[in-house]
Structure formats: C-alpha cells, structure tokens
Amino acid sequence: MSTIPACPQCSLENTYPDGDNYVCADCGHEWPMAAASQADDQDSAVVKDANGNVLQDGDSVVLIKDLKVKGSSITLKMGTKVKSIRLVGGDHEVDCKMDGGNFMLKACYLRKA
User: pLDDT tens for residues 39-52?
Assistant: First the structure.
C-alpha cells in the first residue's frame, strides 16, 4: 500500500511526489507535502466523550441528551445505548447504526457505556 495520500480535490489515488508537493495525475491539483502530514496528525486525534473518557472504534456509548435529527421528525432519546461505534474525522466524530438508521453524532453528547 502506498503512503502517498489521495488527492484532496478529486479523491483519486493516482498521485505522485514532485519536489515539496504532491501532484494528482488525473486533475492536476498540487498541494504541499507538509499539509498532508498535518492532516494525518489530525486523523489520529483523540476523541473524548462528555465525561472525558477516550473513545475507540467498537465502543458502546449512551446518549446523554435527546437529539433531534435534522430534516426529519425522528428524535434520538436520552439513555439510548449505541453499540459498535466507528470514529471518523470532521465535526461529527462518531458514526453509528441505530434502529432509526445510520447517524453521525458529536462525541460531546455521548458517554462511554
């Protein structure tokens, strides 16, 4: 497996190093190697729940607050247990499956079970 990251613009993996930059052979986008290494550091950031416990993939968590689902009439109720979470990057750090569907949740509304 290559350690060269995929293109941030078109997300294809046909990239190569060129001096201090990475270059995408498909779309021609160039970005600095330093920015790519900083993005790798952010991906390995520690995600903590509302009580400060470190969360990991596969953990079980409990909702600490009723959460309204945007664009729907569904409300995720406080005390609902969610099994086998998956940590992802971005504003909503936790990806999970529940009875109502798949949801992305913020870790500040969860506590480790």
Answer: 555 555 789 999 99
CATH architecture of the domain covering 61-112: Roll (2.30)
Q: What is the pLDDT of residues 50-87, one digit of tens each?
A: 999 999 999 999 999 999 999 999 999 999 999 999 99
Percent of residues in the chain assigned helix, strand, coil, to nearest 5? 10, 35, 55
- Sheet with 61-63, strands from edge to edge, namely 81-82, 61-63, 110-112
CA distances from 71 to 34, 92, 97, 105 (A): 38, 16, 18, 15
Q: Do domains 1-44 and 61-112 have the same CATH topology?
A: no
